[in-house]
Amino acid sequence: MKNFIGSRSLPDMIYHAPESIEKLFLLLSDAARPFRIVAGCTDFIPAVRTGRWSFDEEVTIIDLKQIKALNYIEHQGGMVHIGACTRLTQILESPEIQEKAPVLARAVTTMGSWQVRNTATIGGNICMSSPAGDTIPALLVLDARVTLAGPDGEEEMLLKEFLTGPGQNTMEDNQVMTRISFPAMEKNETACFKKIGNRTAVIISIVSTAVRITLEHGVCRNVKIAMGSVAPTPIRINRAEAFLEGKRLDQEVIHRCGALVSEEISPITDLRASGDYRRDVAATLVKRAIAECMEEKE
Amino acid sequence: MKIPLNLTINGDTVELTVDANETLLHVLRNSASLQSVHRSCEEGECGACTVLVNNEPVNSCLVLAVSVQGASVMTAEGLVRNNEPHPIMKAFTDELGIQCGFCTPGMLMTAYALINRCEGSELTDEFIRKSLQGNLCRCTGYVNIVKAVKKAKQNKDAGYWW
Ligand SMILES: Cc1cc2nc3c(=O)[nH]c(=O)nc-3n(C[C@H](O)[C@H](O)[C@H](O)COP(=O)(O)OP(=O)(O)OC[C@H]3O[C@@H](n4cnc5c(N)ncnc54)[C@H](O)[C@@H]3O)c2cc1C
Ligand code: FES
Ligand code: FES
Predict the structure, then answer these.
(1) Would you call B1 and A15 a contact, using CB atoms and an 8 Å cutoff?
(2) Looking at chain B, which residue has its C-alpha nearest residue A44?
């Protein structure tokens, strides 16, 4: 199936699509190695086509899409829970997410195209653990936790602790991500997601940011600022957060916060942008995001 | 690994045998001989391979065929009825939303799904453009495509649709 230079054919595959978590765990205990878990395949297939991932001979594919128990959005006792295999379109269109975590819906609108969002899953985006993964900054300001499960049991941890480096996380070979959870946002909170890429649509972020603020009589409380593509993983910008805490927003304060962001990060230069450009744009993006939060509450 | 695959393609149920590593794009073009499903980037970027799976547009190059067992698939061939072009096709030719035609089948499928979803409500230019972000066109500059989608929506609102 080779067509042009750079597009590689897919390896031979043994394909499994378990319908329940129990069947999945059985497979994880004795699937032929090497194996690969897939959900929407929107990262998997391009990674193989471009040669970023390669397999010597045959690869066993364990497809999670048929497991209905991994596909849901629910709001219960102040917490929002999302099954790892929930597709991005479902998240975007969910009234619960629009109301309880609009910042996540905003992030998802900027991801890929309609076609990609119809197949891509939130779990896939997190498990790729790309510094540019767009759901991650939004989930970081939501203080999200992720649940990993495997034949040996289940563990829940902060998303921040799950991510360990570019494309790296704490997941073991025989684990899958089952759930993403976070507290629902309160009425007096406001949040915003912004990203910059080489064009405005269907593009990987050069820099992205999510900002969440509680405005109490015009004073900032519980400030959370996260950024993507400025460090080995998406991160929270602690000093800039602390700076805004207890302050009244005006142009001067927003400007100084942006400057602090630039100081706090040390982004790398890569194919998409230089470190200097990222540092500049990061300040601008955070300033715009804060200004938007402010406008929304006025 | 060979796997039996049952699909409903453009309304007909078909039984195929496919390799586990074949994409839906490959199966539709090669086993089902549906040449409207165009192959280009094979990485989800261009949208030329867009088809509807259970009424939703997806990039068929990013779908393993075996993963959509039992699904209903629609391609641009499925728009034609009794050799009559579909009203959305008429709109694309009327408004010159087509030049070389390479992007057209994919564009039609996304636009068709979009119009079917917007029952009653109005379609703004901005929303059309946002919905078609995943379909690249190197010829038209998109202006006439947006016009064509609006024209198609008018066709539908006037009862000229199937
Ligand atoms: C054209 C295009 C545009 C894109 N635009 C964006 C964008 O704007 N922003 C962005 O962030 N991303 C973008 N992406 C990347 C991709 O769509 C997302 O990262 C998507 O969310 C991946 O989900 P998936 O289900 O398709 O993952 P898959 O490709 O199925 O899986 C990716 C990896 O994650 C692992 N995995 C998936 N789910 C689980 C699970 N539940 N448990 C354990 N491991 C798991 C798999 O083993 C695999 O290695 C784009 C991709 C394409 C093709
Ligand atoms: S061939 Fe599928 S998106 Fe380009
Ligand atoms: S008409 Fe030629 S690419 Fe769109």
Answers:
(1) yes
(2) B62
Closest CA to B20 of A56, A12, A62, A47: A12
Q: What is the DSSP letter of A53?
A: S
Give the type of residue at B101: G
Residue A8 has pLDDT above 90, yes or no: no
The pLDDT value given to residue A103: 98
**Residues near ligand 1 (Cβ within 6 A):** A 36-44, 46, 64, 84-85, 111-112, 116, 120-121, 123-125, 127-128, 133-134, 176-177, 202, 204; B 43-45
CATH T-level topology, domain A3-63: 3.30.43
Fold of the domain spanning B2-76: Ubiquitin-like (UB roll) (3.10.20)
Name the band, by pLDDT with cuts 50, 70 and 90, for residue A249.
very high
Q: Which top CATH class is A189-297?
A: alpha beta
Q: Is the pLDDT of residue A2 over 50?
A: no
Query: Measuring CA to CA, which residue among B18, B105, B93 is closest to residue B59?
Result: B105
User: Which residues touch B162 (CB under 8 Å, ≥6 apart)?
Assistant: B81, B86, B87
Beta-carbon separation of B21 and A112 below 8 A? no
Contacts with B56 from chain A: Cβ below 8 Å: 89, 118
pLDDT tens per residue, range B132-155: 999 999 999 999 999 999 999 999
Question: What angle, 0 to 180 degrees and rounded to 10, lies between the N-to-C axes of helices B143-157 and B87-94?
Answer: 140
Q: What's the CA gap between B74 and B51, in Å, rounded?
A: 6
Determine the distance separating the centroid of ligand 1 and the alpha carbon of B62, expressed in angstroms. 11
| ipTM of the modeled complex | 0.98
Unique residue bearing structure tokens 């498990």: A127
